[in-house]
Amino acid sequence: MKRVVFCGVGALGSNAVVACRNLGAQLVLVDFDRVESKNCLSQAFVKASVGKNKADALKLQLSNFWGVKTESFGVRVDAHNVATLCGSADLVVDAFDNAKSRDVLSTWAKSAGKPLVHAAVSADGTFGLVRWNERFVADAEPSPGAATCEGGEHLPLIALVASTLARTVQDFIANGARRDSMIALSGVTCPPTSTAP
Fold it and tell me: Which of 101, 111, 145, 185 shows its CA 20 to 30 Å from the CA of 12?
């Protein structure tokens, strides 16, 4: 069975994981953060999860709602543990909301030769993207920890990006396809050159 490690299970990650629940792969959830009430507006968490670690809470919800067994690690990914957390993955998924964590994953994946796909939403909620590591560079943040998906104001775009990410994961697991996507509220575009690994 293929192993897919989702790094970051906030707005994009949690919704993509829920859409991947019938993938037929071992899902691994990694996030150090705790569920806050405001997260329930844009993330796949229920009120009963408030106060719990996000990875553990999502693991419990997947088990209780759909009988899906996952693994969870309630830790922050850094240069010291990334190989331990992601080393056995067939695919690593970056759904982080900060450039520092994205860079740690990107650097490690390149050195380890691991497939890594990134998903992101612009701070102003005008577009999102799903892009493979070979063609991804994390944008610098205007200020560290700036919220991009709080309050649910970008929920339609979050849903589009998370769904596109889930389909990208599905296609990779099924046939190794690596397609990049640019997502706006007007639709999704996939450049014709994005299918090459």
Answer: 111
